[in-house]
Amino acid sequence: MSEVLLSARNLTKRFGGLAAVNEVSVDLWRGRIHAVIGPNGAGKSTLANLLSGDLAPTSGTITLGEANVTGWKPESVSKAGLGRSYQKTNIFLPFTVWENVRLAAQSRAPHPARWLRRATSFAATNERAQRALALAGLEHRKDAVAGTVSHGEQRQLEIAMTLATEPRVLLLDEPLAGMGTVEAERMVELLQRLKAEHAVMLVEHDMDAVFALADRLTVMVNGQVIASGTPAQIRADANVQAAYLGE
Ligand code: ADP
Ligand code: MG
């Protein structure tokens, strides 16, 4: 069932005189991958930072589920259902894959200090971690030390750690960066699995992957949306050709 899980309206972020994000609106739907593309400096990461609460917008509103989360702290936005993987890794390399996912799941457990709830919360946290590991396709690497698994598996692990917080909306910043062909194919399959239950916003430079995966695209240049639509519409858009794809 399709529904809008996150809706941003007229988001603007100024850094001094520069509008890094300028009146951008975007809807993220359950069951859809929404790719945000554009040249370096277009404002893609700033947009992701606004949606995750890492930056407060200068103006505009963000609605997550039923909540107006504009100006909320990242922890609160995360609790409200938004999961974000960062380009910079949060993986603790000396720990095993399982321990990393388990820790991420723990960060979401309610009232961890309440001893009365501990037994049920312990089981629930393990289940959450187990589900995330399976969805990310990493069960067979459970006991491997995170620092020893491949680059592609570390990126899968980051996604598993994000999934362990049970988000409804996933923001993924360049999940394919630095991957070889086989790793990239595996990640594309993983992202396709994820969209069944999540709304996904994908910031990605690999255009083959973007056009293979995206149900909707937003093209940004200099902080502004120059085109938005289906892959077919974006491919045919003369402005996009001129500003970006034709480069
Ligand atoms: P993209 O991710 O599309 O490459 P960014 O969102 O990182 O683009 O950057 C958009 C613009 O905002 C760039 O001109 C960048 O230099 C500027 N910018 C980003 N973050 C900051 C900041 N914290 N302070 C000042 N300028 C910034
Ligand atoms: Mg960026």
Task: Tell me about this structure.
- The protein has helices at about 45-50, 75-80, 95-105, 120-135, 150-165, 180-195, 205-215, 230-235, 240-245, and strands spanning about 5-15, 20-30, 35, 60-65, 65-70, 80-85, 170-175, 200-205, 215-220, 225-230.
- The N and C termini lie far apart (about 40 Å).
- It has a domain at about 1-80 and about 200-245: Rossmann fold, CATH 3.40.50.
- The strands form two sheets. The protein has a six-stranded mixed beta sheet, with helices on both faces. The protein has a four-stranded antiparallel beta sheet with strand order 2-1-4-5, covered by helices on one side.
- The protein is α/β, with parallel strands linked by helices.
- The protein is globular, with a radius of gyration of 18 Å.
- Helix 3 (about 95-105) packs across helix 4 (about 120-135).
- It has nine helices and ten strands.
- The chain binds adenosine-5'-diphosphate and magnesium ion (MG).
- The site of adenosine-5'-diphosphate (ADP) has 11 residues, from strand 2 and helix 1.
- Magnesium ion binds near residues 44 and 45.
- This is Candidate ABC type branched chain amino acid transport systems, ATP-binding component.
- It holds the Pfam family BCA_ABC_TP_C.
- It comes from Ramlibacter tataouinensis (strain ATCC BAA-407 / DSM 14655 / LMG 21543 / TTB310).
- GO terms for molecular function: ATP binding; ATP hydrolysis activity.
